[in-house]
Amino acid sequence: MVRYPAWDQDEARSIVSGLSHLEGATLPILHALQEEFGYVDPQIVPVIAYALNLSRAEIHGAISFYHDFKTSPAPRRVIKLCRAEACQALGCETMVDHLARDHGIDVGALAHSHDVAIETVYCLGNCALGPAALVDGELIGRLDADLLAALCSHHGADA
Where does the chain bind [2Fe-2S] cluster (predicted)? Predict the structure, then answer.
């Protein structure tokens, strides 16, 4: 997983000023900020708006319209849990219930106390070895509730 530097307002301002001369600079600026820090901190919105002579609403609209732009740092671990039919048949929904009931982790929500995002996906192409998940880009097959809980725990995030 890529580790980004902490948000630096001075560096962000430098990126904005370095790209503000471009025609249609909004998206290049947002992409550059996302590439540098992994997200676009909302505190930079007024700076971008001023530099481009646009409203804050226009900048916010661009950030919220494009789903690839994030407004907060990425979690330490991203788990994409397959919930397609084959994985359902092999027990993924039981694992989802187990996480919610025993660990207070809701699939589809960022579990801030665990610094883990668990997202639902529909088919990872690993049906024969389901239930399956993609953990920080690594495919895991034959997942069970205990392993999934360990991957979601703080200790699991360091592994």
Answer: 82, 87, 123, 127
Work out the percent of the chain whose per-residue pLDDT is above 90.
70
Q: Is 152 annotated as a binding residue?
A: no
Mean pLDDT of 72-89: 91
How many of the other CB atoms lie within 10 Å of CB of 135? 22
Q: What is the pTM of this model?
A: 0.65
**C-alpha angle 19/23/26, rounded to 5°?**
60
Has 82 been labeled as part of a binding site?
yes
Domains of the chain and any CATH numbers: 9-65 (no CATH), 77-158 (3.40.30.10)
- Which residues lie closer than 8 Å to 37 by C-beta, 6 or more apart? 4, 5, 6, 7, 8, 12, 73
- pLDDT of residue 159 exceeding 50, the answer is no
Q: Is residue 87 marked as binding?
A: yes
Q: 127 labelled as ligand-binding?
A: yes
Which residue in 87, 77, 99 sits closest to 147, CA to CA?
99
